Structure formats: C-alpha cells, structure tokens
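INFO batch 0412 | record 1 of 1 | parsing
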Amino acid sequence: MSTFRHRSFLAAAAAIIAITAGSGIAAQAAPRPGANDTGDTVLANSFSAVDRNTSWNLTGKLELDFPTHHPQGIAYTEDHIFLSSVEIVERTVKYPSPQGGYDRSAGKGVGHLFVMDKSGKLQKAIILGEGDMYHPGGLDFDGENIWVSVAQYRPNSSSLIYRVDASTLEAEKQFEVPDHFGGVVMDRQTGHLVGNTWGSRRFAEWNLKGKQLSTWQNPNHFLDYQDCQYVASSQALCAGVTNLPQTPAAGGLAGTYELGGMALIDLAKGTTLHEVPFQKWSTAGHVATRNPFKLTADGGHLTMHVAPDDYEEGNGTEILTYEATVIPAN
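INFO prediction complete | emitting tokens
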C-alpha cells in the first residue's frame, strides 16, 4: 500500500457509488469526487496568515444548559449546532502490562451527538456507538452530512464511522475500522474519508465502503488533534492539545500544562502546511482548543468557536467565540 494516495483519472472518475452499512442499512449515493469541493479557500489563505502574534479577542460565551458530559467535536449548519460528547459510566483502568493487545480496560460509556438551535437550546440527543465503541470524536460537515467516528476509549482498538443527515438527523453506521480513530473528515476532492488515530499519530484514508486506500504517519509531534474540518483542495484544518510536564519545582509530570494549537494539513501529501500555538484559556482553566473547534473566515476576519470545558467543570460547557483579523498573502 502506498504511503500517500495516488490519484489517477480513473479514481477521480468513480463518480457515484452505493454504500451499505454492515448491518443492512439502506444504500446511499456517495459524493462525486471533486463535484462538491466547494471548501473555503478563503479560510485556508487567511489561516496561513495567522502566527504567534495574532491577536485573538474573546467576543462571546454561549452557556449550554443541559448535561454535555465530555464534549469532543462541533459543527455548524444553517439550522443547527452539532456537538459530540462521551458520557463516562465506568472509567478505563490502565493495566500493569498489556492484556489482549490493550493497555487498559474498555470502560463503559454512552456516545452522544447533541443537536441544538443557534441559541444553544437542545433539540435532539442522538445516541451513537455500540458495545465498547462509545467515544465519539471530532465532527466534519460536508454541506449535507455530519461525519463522526465512535471509538473504543483506548488506543489500538476499533471504531465505527457514522453519517448523520444534517436535515433529517437520521444516523447511519457506514463501516467499522480496526483502530481508535478520534476524528474524521470528508475530503470533497476525492469523495473519501480521512481519519486520525489515538493522539493523531497516524492518518488513514478510506472509500465509503470502508476500504483503506492509504495511511501515513503524522509529521507533527506537537499536537494531538481533537477536532478537524475540511477546508478545500484536499486540506483539513485541525486543532488540539498536548499535555506537557512542568519543571520539577512546579510538579513535573504531576503538574502538566496544556499546549493548544491549530494546523492546516495537506491530506493528499500527508504534510503539515501551517501550524500555530493557541494559548487562550477557558473558565475551568483549559486551553481553548482542548476539544471542539470550528473556524470560519470572512476575508481576513477569522471567527473561532470552541468548547473546552466539560459539564462538571467551571460554569459547565460554554461555546467560546474568539475573533481575529489577519492580512492574507493572496
């Protein structure tokens, strides 16, 4: 298998395929490669002008008044805000040594996809996952569907990939993959899905039947991506966090701090195009890019929505809005 994808004319011309979920779910039409690649090139250009000196201003807080548990990903459509979250019923426990290929127990939980109106009022709670796969990850909206992975809460495990119709709110399981994938995006240039594993150390690409087409190691070792969105031309914008140790006097490994940041990724070449740190803090003291993340651009004006805090922390989950202005190169 090639490390990076080889896009031949024949692959690009595989216009519409019917896919059927493993448990008898009705077939659907896949996007025709390239036809729906109306991604935001303005966003890609504007983000490339962001650096460590960019001034981000907190311009809004939207408090959510329902149990959000541990939020993971966020997506916006014309009518709704979607928020994925994991409800922990029984925490995983690290083994003294690996057992059955796992470094910890499976734990127990419930996967949620919350659907809200634009004021943050809960309209529907969709349960996702099955068995030990109860941990939803980051979200991507392709203009019609929300794409989300639901994984076991441990590395080197397994995940289910779901498609949720953003209009009808019907969720359909598409396929299962043999690893923990914490996020997935729809590459509208190819009509394929791209996911990232535990800690985002590896990426994989599949067609809509779940056949793995390529895989590559993440060249970025600074961030564990938590939530990604498709941008344009086989590029994705990801945000995340890494817990790093303090000095021994400040507690060492017991006194870690959160490094946040964002990165623009080339999904075709498996490379990082641009990355910047982001050190703004939530009410509960988390770095803002800890989990759910969405960025939009209006010319050189950027608007970021993040939701770093859990329901049990601080003021509960708040969707924070940050804004910045940059001068794009082109």
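INFO post-check: Residues 27 and 70 are 32 Å apart (CA to CA).
INFO record closed
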